[in-house]
Please model this.
Amino acid sequence: MTERPRVAFFDFTGCEGDQLQVVNLEERLFDLVEVVEVVSFREAMSEHSDDYEIAFIEGSVVTAHDEERLAGIRENADVVVALGSCAAFGGINAIRNDQDFETVTERVYGDDADMIEANPEARPIESVVEVDATIPGCPIDREEFVQVVTGLIRGVEPTLPNHPVCVECKLEENECAFHRDEICLGPVTRGGCGADCVGEGTHCWGCRGMVDTPSEDAYTAVLEEHGLDAEEIVEQYQLYWGWQRPERATQEEAQ
Amino acid sequence: MSETIDIESEYVTRVEGHGNIVVNVADGEVETCEWQVVESPRFFESMLVGRDWTEAHHVTARICAICSISHTTASLKATEAAMGVDLSAQDERLRKLALYAETLQSHVLHLGYLALPDLVGKQSVLPILDSHEAEVEAVVRLHRLGNDLTEAIAGRSVHAQRHLPGGFSKLPDEDELDALRTRLESAWSDVELVADLLVELSDELPDFERETEFISLTHPDEYAFYDGTLYSSDTGELDVEDYREIVDEVVVEQSTAKFTSHARESYMVGALARLNNNFEQLGPMAKAVADRFGLEPGSHNPYLNNVAQLVEIAHLIETSIVELDTLLDGGLDPQPDYHTPDVEVEAGTGIGAVEVPRGVLFHEYTYDEDGEITDANCVIPTNQNHANIQQDMEELVPTILDRPEDEIELTLEMLVRAYDPCISCSTHYLDVEFVDE
Ligand code: SF4
Ligand code: SF4
Model:
């Protein structure tokens, strides 16, 4: 990687919240452009170049055109980073993966449903191209983004925490959602956010995705106490895992 | 300038999402002039079906990040209307403040990061930093202020964490609100700086007028954002209940995004529509800003939407200070930690209509007796503006054919950007194409 790498941002199907989090670095955005050269960032600039080393990709893959475009980006970039949960594992878009696709298009477009071109499933970018680093979250955490960028410049191998949100929740000394008679996805969700939503008074919705192997990595103490197991809450209470859940099941079966 | 125009430029950048402008001129005659929106569909209305009443606002926040609080608010209002949930005066005030703060953030982003570069003749805000450092710093400070105020109330500025049906899971810290109030007071000098620059550049805004219909909410007591009845500049007050007929969505051949129309072929929503319909209710500072540009109710130049956003920035600051004073006077009524408001789950249908940065937004849900959604409909402002953009283009293009190609292209791109379309909600491709025959 060059000393001041050329970076580009691309958005696929998503809310563009992860790019907004980058803009929300406010003054620090101007510091960031000292250490990297932004050559494409459609949300904030008109310039565009296909000559870049790091590609940050936001959003899921939902059309054949998305697949082609993504493959092209992979060819141009040395490093591809999945930015946010939609790109990382399908995220909220994958809710519809559990629904019959014909019903889905009809509900939204009625008689004009056949004018809509889309794949029956919303998928993460790793279903199309190889991904070098992942920043999960819905939206991404600004600090985590800065850390990953700094790491990439220094050539540090990117890592993802694999402890459940519960671990951080205990450290924060929050009152456990289960004690308050709420269902929380913290026991099976990948940590790294400091159990943010619990701290804000609710529960974990699972936005950072599942831990690698829920049956092994889950924080079972909390679950057992309330007569639940990892399997059950993965199957019944998730919002974000419409792609990840069946995918994990296949993987675990193969092992 | 040749008689035949053929411009093909990929992606109109600096709008949230993509679309396509196709203009085709042969022998001085306009043959095609289309605003095409090619949707990369997200299917939210289907995704909501089967979701629980506690989840709808969480899911719909993800329709669009720039206006995520707006979607959250419309969503909660729809759920609350369906189940007959009342909000306390304090919670309603907090909801309003979060909405104002997000709108401030969104307007500043659009004006400062996305529209200003056009006027200065630059490609992004970065090169402007050299020539207009003080103004760019003011833009960044105002943007941060909007975000910080949202964060203080919602927990996070992108995708709120504390908003719940019937209230909030956690109350903001009073000292933090107090500090934000002080920052709002001192934001005037930043607004002035941006206004000075925009006044200086206002000659760059194309002088183009086309009479159209303006639709927005209106409220007897305030410049409507959070609540109100519908109002059309053509036909007067309208019932929110009738919103489906009013927006009359159609899928058109050239675009996979839906187009809308009401009293005429198209109508406009957003800052300019609100300003035209509710001008008298703007605060004194906002009116003073409008005065500097000679902006008055009855303005039919869509490019002035940028100025209307600046006027609203002033208004939002004024009105937020007033709301904060009311909240902080006597202190916030406390609530328990990890608060879950009481909601009696019942079957029913409810509509939530809210004025959001880009215009009036509707969410409508039907719930069954278990509190699961059986039917959902969301009408976003950007879709309501598509037909108006199309009509503007048809009238504008023939009048500017004598200009150089790149100038035509920029003028059209600026037109689209003036509407501040947030196409990511529903759509994904914005190109300008001048097709050769
Ligand atoms: S991960 Fe969340 S914040 Fe990012 S695009 Fe998807 S919905 Fe938006
Ligand atoms: S607590 Fe859960 S839902 Fe909230 S940010 Fe963390 S992982 Fe996401």
